[in-house]
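Run: sequence + magnesium ion -> complex structure.
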Amino acid sequence: MDTNPQTALDVVAGVVAKPRVLVLFGGRSGEHSISCATAGGVLRAIDREKYDVVPVGITPAGRWVLVEDDPDRWAIIDGRLPEVVDGPSRVLLPQAADEAGLSLLAPDAAPSALGRVDVVLPLLHGPFGEDGTLQGMLELVDLRYVGAGVLASAVGMDKHFMKLVLAGQGLPIGRYTVLRPGAFERNPVAWTQSVALLGLPVFVKPARGGSSLGITKVDDLAELPAAIAAAQVHDPKVVIEAGIVGREIECAVLGSPDGRRPRASQPGEIVVTDTRHDFYDFEAKYLNEAGVELTCPADLPAAVNAEVRELAIRTFEAVGCEGLARVDVFVTPENRVIVNEINTMPGFTPFSMYPRMWAESGLGYAELIDELLQLALTRPTGLR
Ligand SMILES: Nc1ncnc2c1ncn2[C@@H]1O[C@H](COP(=O)(O)OP(=O)(O)O)[C@@H](O)[C@H]1O
Ligand SMILES: [Mg+2]
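>> structure
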């Protein structure tokens, strides 16, 4: 049941109050700085005539602090990665579903009210942000938020369960194996043989990672133990995939109001042109813009374009996604489309693929933010 239907349109003294948006970013994952960069873009573009903004950063240690509402503070400039720094006061969420307000807790002082929040915009990537944990916390107190719910976030984050869900619904994925914590160490010879069956190269990945952190392309089985150890820096569970030869194509999906079908953007293509990168790794994604070409729309035959968009929507629906997601696929030389992954909180700076693909499809960055906020403001809380 929707216990809080009024929040989006609270009437205060005869004036329709602006929805108050908690822009939440930073966080505990390895993608902390990327989240800050996204927040910089959003703080610059969000329509201040229409929304009040409360920027809240989460430090790498997980502390919630009120931060500067300054887009420049959060940009990646000359390779310097922004970070939320701790301060003396803490931002507290409402403690119960019938309390809509945030509080600020300062040392040696009683908690002070920070006012109500109508919607949370969680611009968090990776574990403890994009993986359902934060979403669960917001569900508990009936706070509306942008994007996927608890289950879809968790499934989208975990490449193991993502593959199970996609395969279970007949979507095309590549071959892979999963190393649970400790499994390789117990039997390295058997595991090396089973990885060899995938054929080389393989991609060794943290199951719940992002931004290519901890991923190694392995061309020689002798490199396997080191690659597994590198992935385990991020996650004790590791996914190993057969390398797929194909173009890297992405598609942005946006939820629709009133139970209508989600929308798919024009697909984009990523071509890593700098040969120092073996694949689309962390440096290629964020630190070497000149070494990567992002093309939108991707130059695809019409039938392949349509298939990518259809598969992107089916992937979005397969994991029960809401709001937004970027679906990444490979298109093989024979024009087979294979789903690589779904990202329930994709990179969202104005230069990121998700907003760029929408811009190319006729929806600008500020309007995109507005659409996402409106979708979240009008969706009911509780089971949907
Ligand atoms: N099975 C694969 N075959 C070929 N390239 C891959 C494969 N898996 C990953 N890659 C390369 O590694 C990059 C990052 O992998 P991805 O699964 O998207 O992880 P992340 O969640 O960190 O973005 C991809 O964009 C692609 O360049
Ligand atoms: Mg990816």
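>> summary
The chain has three domains: 7-147, 156-173+245-344, 176-242. DSSP finds eleven helices and 19 strands in the chain.
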